[in-house]
Design a protein that fits this description.
This protein is mainly alpha-helical. The longest helix has 20 residues. The N terminus is likely disordered.
Length: 495
């Protein structure tokens, strides 16, 4: 896309003073991303006068972070004594359409920016935006009308609402929720909102950790007869919990449980969020009361629920409470099985709590819960990550004593761990065992082990492993893998 005369080339910043200002603005943007509302405030306090070369210079630095770039671009457009020139619009549209994924997500935003650029406007009139939405719908969202026509379904919503929801969603994903809500209020008389419109906005406010604003929209949504789905409720409850507003989270959960419709009744995910939040705030009695409600209501916990609850308790150091949770579930008629214990063990192994992990393993043996190969794999991996190869060997021996046969993952974890601990002889011995047993290794691991063998210069082992893997992988696959790795390294280098 050609740039208009008078605008510097994209990414080229002339003059040491301007380059210094670009650095300051860019660093401020990147340092202010932790807080959701800090970015605009920090930029406002910077006190650097905006100019087109400065804005395009910052956009060039942010070209791989399209959402941050658009947020900065929007902030700059709202400032006094500055208005975007065509080249700034061009740079922004180039960033938003640099990949197929971005084009799909931000195409309608680019249409709005194109109008603003061509007409030198800072806002888009309602009738013009409606025309843009209509054109977008006719060009890209015809599948809805085609399906309705084919099935002879009468669509009660305006066709433009789907395009409008996409626009609001794009703004919310860039943390421009204030702009999205302003646009919604401006257009709601022209384009009638649907439940999805409100869901997007509520989720947007939760995304920027402002659930109170989201609840106002949720109340408006319910008053208009729309039903929020449980995903929106879950997001709001999770946001309240992360913001430390546990009372509000519990109140919303109770509303959802008692007055919510069938479509928005609590799921196992909802219970997991609220139980973990209560546990982290030492409200264990309420936790176990909720577990009773969950089971009585027919909302049975699945593997993910167990993992989230146990992980949430372990992360805040409440391991005893996690055991009590398992006991409580057993008392309610849902005893722990190997899958449940493995979920618990994974949390402990990932946290490198070796004593607690071995204690849990001992408990499994006492309760006659036979460990699976995944149980041993997690323990072996944990010991190697803790630079404790002896612990890994003991686990390997324990696995053999209990008659549990190692699988491909076990061999990969052991061999990789031994190489990393400089126990080359033991690693080569296991590789020989892999070859003798005819085990097929994943190509990535095969490539990694060959590199390790080349470092120690063991030509015989390299030849043996190559001959073995040639039974499973051909030259074409090797070439594709090498090219994919090269493309991956090049893309990371570009960033």
């Amino acid at each position: 896309m050609n740039h208009d005369l008078g605008c510097g080339a994209s990414g080229v910043v002339e003059g040491n003073g301007l380059e210094s200002d670009v650095d300051k603005v860019y660093n401020t943007v990147m340092n202010s991303l932790i807080g959701f509302n800090n970015l605009e405030k920090a930029l406002g306090q910077l006190g650097i006068p905006l100019s087109t070369p400065l804005v395009t210079g910052v956009l060039h630095r942010l070209r791989y972070d399209e959402k941050i770039a658009f947020r900065f671009f929007t902030w700059a457009g709202h400032q006094e004594n500055y208005s975007h020139e065509p080249c700034a619009y061009n740079d922004m549209m180039d960033i938003l359409s640099s990949t197929k994924y971005k084009v799909k997500q931000f195409r309608i935003v680019c249409d709005v920016l194109e109008y603003m650029k061509r007409n030198n406007k800072t806002t888009v009139p309602v009738e013009v935006l409606l025309m843009i939405l209509r054109k977008y719908t006719e060009k890209y969202l015809t599948h809805v009308q085609k399906f309705a026509k084919k099935r002879r379904i009468k669509v009660k919503t305006q066709p433009e609402i789907n395009a409008f929801n996409l626009l609001l969603d794009a703004l919310c994903k860039c943390c421009l929720v204030e702009d999205a809500e302003t646009l919604y209020k401006k257009m709601r008389k022209t384009v009638k909102p649907t439940a999805d419109t409100y869901n997007i906005l509520v989720f947007g406010w939760c995304r920027v950790r402002n659930p109170t604003r989201g609840m106002k929209l949720l109340e408006e949504m319910i008053q208009l007869g729309h039903r929020p789905d449980n995903f929106v409720y879950n997001t709001a409850i999770d946001t309240y919990c992360k913001a430390g507003m546990i009372t509000e989270a519990v109140d919303l959960f109770e509303f959802m449980r008692t007055k919510g419709s069938t479509i928005s009744s609590p799921t196992a995910k909802t219970y997991a969020i609220i139980i973990v939040a209560l546990a982290q705030n030492d409200r264990m009695e309420e936790c176990f009361k909720l577990i009773g409600h969950m089971i009585c209501g027919g909302c049975l916990p699945d593997v993910t629920t167990y993992k989230e609850i146990i992980e949430g308790m372990c992360v805040c150091g409440k391991i005893d409470e996690a055991y009590k949770f398992l006991e409580e579930m057993g008392n309610k008629g849902y005893p722990s099985d190997i899958v449940t214990y493995n979920c618990f063990l994974k949390v402990l192994c990932d946290s490198k709590k070796s004593e607690e992990a071995l204690k849990l393993y001992g408990r499994m043996i006492e309760l006659s819960c036979i460990p699976s190969v995944q149980t041993y794999n997690m323990l072996i991996s944990m010991f190697f990550e803790m630079d404790d190869p002896d612990g890994a060997f003991d686990t390997w021996q324990e696995m053999d004593n209990r008659g549990c046969r190692p699988d491909t993952d076990t061999y990969c974890v052991m061999i990789e761990g031994l190489f990393n601990c400089n126990k080359m002889e033991d690693a080569c011995f296991l590789l020989e065992d892999v070859i003798n047993k005819g085990i097929k290794l994943p190509y990535k691991k095969f490539d990694s082990f060959l590199m390790q063998l080349s470092v120690i210069g063991d030509l015989r082992a390299i030849h043996r492993l190559s001959e073995h893997m040639r039974k499973f992988y051909n030259h074409g696959m090797a070439r594709r893998y090498a090219l994919s790795q090269k493309r991956k390294s090049m893309s990371l280098r570009g960033k």
